[in-house]
Amino acid sequence: MRTSRLRTVHPVLWTGWAALAAGAVLCVVGWYGVSGERFAERQLPYLASCTVPGAALIVSGAVLLAHGRGSIAAARVEELYGLLVAAEPGEADETGQASVAPLAVSGERLMVPGGTLWHRADCPLVAGKAEAVPVDSELVASGELSPCPICEPAEETD
C-alpha cells in the first residue's frame, strides 16, 4: 500500500528540487549580467530573461515541495488508518453483529511520558516502546489520563 503511493510522490519532490535549482541558477546569471551593465536599459534584458523567470521557478519549486511532503504525510496517515481498521472481526453473536476481538488483553497499564492516554501493555501503540512507563494511579484518578480508544483498557484494572 505504502510503496505504490510513495512512488507517485517522488517525481513531484524531484521536480520541486529541480525547479528550485534551475531558478537559483537563473537568478545568479541574471544578477551577474545586471552587475556588469552600467545603464538601466542594458540591465532590463537580464532581469526579464533570467531573474524574473528564476524567481518564478523558485516559487513553483517551493510549492511542489510543499505539495509532495503533504502527499507523503497523507500516505502515511492512510497506511496507519489501514493498520488500525485491519483487525479481523470475531465470531458473530446471537444478535447477528460481529464482535471485534480486543487488540490488547494485558492487565498491566502503561503510558508514554507527556502523553494523555493510558494503554494496556500489549497495545500496539506502546508495545515495544522503551519510553513507556507504568501508569501512576494518581494520574488516572485525577483525570489527567484517559483510556486509550484502541486497546480500551478497563477503568477498574489493579
What does this structure look like?
By secondary structure, the chain is an alpha+beta fold. The chain contains 3 helices and 6 strands, in the order ααβββββαβ. The protein has helices at residues 2-35, 40-84, 137-142, and strands at 89-92, 98-100, 109-111, 117-120, 133-134, 146-147. It has a 4-stranded mixed β-sheet, with no helix packed on it. Strand 3 (109-111) and strand 4 (117-120) form a beta hairpin. Helix 1 runs antiparallel to helix 2. The chain is rod-shaped.
Entry keywords:
single chain; 158 residues; four-stranded mixed β-sheet; two-stranded antiparallel ribbon; 6 strands; rod-shaped
Low-confidence stretches: none
Distance between the termini: 40 Å
Mean pLDDT: 76
- CA radius of gyration is 28 Å
Structure summary, number of beta strands = 6
Sheet-strand content, in percent, reads 5-15%
Q: Output the helix-strand order.
A: HHEEEEEHE
The helix count comes to 3
- Specify the structural class: alpha+beta
| Main sheet properties | 4 strands, mixed
Q: How do the strands of the widest beta sheet line up side by side?
A: 5-3-4-6
Name the shape in a single word. rod-shaped
**Helix content, binned percent:** 40-55%
